[in-house]
Fold this protein.
Amino acid sequence: MKTYRSAVTILFLSAALLVGCSSGGEKTNPSVPAYTPGADNSGGTAPAESAPADDYYYSAEASASSTSATDGPLTAEGLSDPATEYTVLSIPDDLDELQQEALRTYIAYDRATWEGYRTEDGDLSAVEATASGDALEYYKKSYDEYMSAGQHAEGSFNKSVLRVDMHDEDIRPIATITACSDFRSSRIVDSSGNDVSRDDWKVLATYSITLVRSGGTWTVTSWTRSEPGRLCTQ
C-alpha cells in the first residue's frame, strides 16, 4: 500500500451529503492557492456525499461525461461553479496524475449532487456517471424524498479538499478523499419558499469519500461523515 498525503490551504459534497451510517461516522482530480470569490486568483479551482458495489466497470463514455463539468484547470477556482453557487475554497498541493483524476471525479460527483438538489428536475445522469453502489442508492433515496415533498435546495455551498490518499494503486486503485463540506449558507425550501431545512442539513462537517478505479474510470462508492473537529476551520 502506498499513501500520498497532501496538505491544504483550507475551507457539498455534492453538494450532497446528509445522513447515513457506518462504523466511525455517518454514511451514505502544482501548488494551488485558496480561492476567494470575487478576488483575483490568477494561480487558480456545490454538494453532498453518498457506498459499495461489486462491479465498477464503466464505459469510456461514462468516464468522459463524469469529468466534463470539471475538465478545466485543476485549481480551486477552476473546479468551482458560480452558476450553482458551488465554491471550492482549496485543494491539496502537488497531486500526481492518479490523484488528480480521482479529485476531478469526486468534484464532478459533488457538483452533480448539489445541482440535483437545487433543480430537482428528475435528471440524475450526471450523478449516475460518477457514483455507484450505496453512494448512488443513498443519493437517489434522499433526492426522491425531497422531490416527493416538492422541496429543493437554495443558497451557496463551500468545499475544501484536505487530502487525496491513494491505496493499492498497482492492483485496483482506491482513493480516499478527505474534505470539509459547508452547508451553512444553504437551505431546503418548500414550494412556497419556506425554509424547511432539517438540523442535519445546515452543517459544517468532515467527509471521507472512497473512490474506486476500474477500466480507467473512477467512481464514488461510499462516504462517511463526522464532526469537523480541527480539520475544518471555516
